[in-house]
């Protein structure tokens, strides 16, 4: 059996005060005349239906070329220290 929650106590209802005077209704504005709808124009006949040209056949697509995978980019090995280049001396007479 499902237990039932206890019910809250019922408070007494206080009587309402006297009803005040009813406000007079406001007058309704002038009635706007309804504009008549425009007459329905007759439908003009459509010209002859031209035949649709047949679609051109689609050219066959060539074979799909496989994509060659790109080789991985190898890391650049650091270069050793750069030594200054000495100027080349012109060969002159050798003094002993």
What does the model show?
With 96 residues, this protein is mostly loops. 0% of the residues lie in helices and 0% in strands. The protein has no helices and no strands. The chain is extended. The N and C termini lie far apart (127 Å).
Short description:
With 96 residues, the chain is mostly loops. Helices cover 0% and strands 0% of the residues.
Write the layout of secondary structure elements.
Blueprint: no helix or strand
Beta-strand percentage?
Answer: under 5%
Low-pLDDT stretches are none
- Radius of gyration based on Cα positions: 52 Å
The separation of the N and C termini measures 127 Å
Approximately how much helix is present in the residues?
under 10%
Q: What does the overall shape look like?
A: extended
**Total number of beta strands:** 0
What average pLDDT do the residues reach?
A: 80
The largest sheet, given as strand count, sense and whether it forms a barrel, is: none
Treating each run of at least 4 consecutive H or I residues as one helix, how many helices?
A: 0
Structural class: little secondary structure
Which labels suit this protein?
0% strand; 96 residues
């Amino acid at each position: 059996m499902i237990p039932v929650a206890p019910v809250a106590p019922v408070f007494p209802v206080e009587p309402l005060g006297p009803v005040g005077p009813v406000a007079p209704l406001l007058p309704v504005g002038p009635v706007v005349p309804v504009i008549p709808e425009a007459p329905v124009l007759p439908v003009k006949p459509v010209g002859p239906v031209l035949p649709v040209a047949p679609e051109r056949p689609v050219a066959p697509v060539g074979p799909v070329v496989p994509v060659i995978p790109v080789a991985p980019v190898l890391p650049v090995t650091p270069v050793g220290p750069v030594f200054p280049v000495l100027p080349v001396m012109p060969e002159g007479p050798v003094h002993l």
